[in-house]
Amino acid sequence: MSNRVRKIISDKIGQIRGMSLRAKSARAAMTLGVGTSVERGLRLVRNMILARILAPDQFGLMAIVMVAVSVFEAFTEVGVKQSVIQNKQGADPEYLNVAWWFQAIRGLGLFGIAFFLAPWISSFYDKPELLRLLRVSFLAMVFRGLVSPRMFVLEKEYKFGRAVLLTQGSGIFGTLVAVVLAFMMRNVWALVAGSVAEFAFMCVLSYLLVPFKPTLKIHRGYLSELFGFTRGMFGLPILTMVSLKTDALLLGKLVPAVQLGMYTLAYGLAEQPAWLFHQIIGRILLPAFAEDQDNNQILRSRVRKIAKATFVFGVPLVALAAIWAGPLLSLIYGRRYTTVAMPFRILCVTMFVRIQAQILVTIYLAIGKPHLYRRIAAVLAILVVCLMYPGIRLFGLEGAAGVLLLSNTVALCMQVIWMRGTIGLRFQNYAFFWRRGTTP
Length: 440
Description:
By secondary structure, the chain is mostly helical. It has helices at about 1-15, 20-55, 55-75, 80-85, 95-125, 130-135, 140-145, 150-155, 160-185, 190-210, 220-235, 235-255, 255-270, 270-290, 295-325, 325-335, 340-365, 370-425, 425-430, 435.
């Protein structure tokens, strides 16, 4: 028996060491899993500490700041990272040079616009203290725009070791800065400083690990290709931002900052599985799907297999979170946070739906047709915008969470229906994947 076990282990190790897509994906998953788990674990510990040091209204202020940053970034997001990964020539230095100028000009221009509009945002929420918080937080956009574009190539080529060090390492640095300053300052400035420090550290570290020197020579062919990809992406980040941030945007205006702060922490906890999926599995799926972007049969098979796996593991987690919502929130954040147990339950289900949608979204990007994703993002954004205000007015925090669940569920169903025209995936095959198996 022991010889048989050793043989099985030896075979599995041999498979992981290979150069096949499965082997590269397995190695990437292991690397991302370790790095992301450590980083998210520290962020959770950070929130556990800060929830006991800072008043809930401080988290409410930070939520408004992050929404403002997201709005500005969404209006100028061009999908540089996705274009580098998807384009077959994305690792070419001349292509990366075009990408660098794209993101650098965007980041600097965005900061200038946001800096001068900060007083209007502060006035809209009737919170004068937001002005300086916003202007300092907007520096993160500059640092994100100046990172070395070679860090995107790491994911394209499955070199996730350094990619994890860059992204998760920067996250850990920002987390430590926030915790240390929270003990010293005991206000929202600790959160702002941690956020800016994270991206400043990422910018510097990117040039140390994957150096890049931009030039003034622009390759016209690559510029045209990048423009073509960004045209497909146009409007998509705005629609995505609307569907993800409308709840916080309106809650910041309609409910006290204390309630928004509690909702924000509950949302962050419920989002953990979806975030981990996006950072670990999602980052592997894009290059994996892109390698077989011309083979619909393989894409269909992989979609069903991944969807089935997420269903098998996700449903029990959602059920446990719903049953133990109150004790879980009390343990992590403190007893006063049990008041948001019901929104937390609803948000947990919503995040499971988002994971299923993320699988299909990656298909659109992998085959170089982000405009198809824009269609479903528009449906989701319209539903959220139309329902969120009355939902909050009638049911408060529970209404906000409920609108997100309803909107995401409807959008996922439509996404599956439309996927038939993209890769030939039938709705009935996808809907009953756990019973029908994974046969193409």
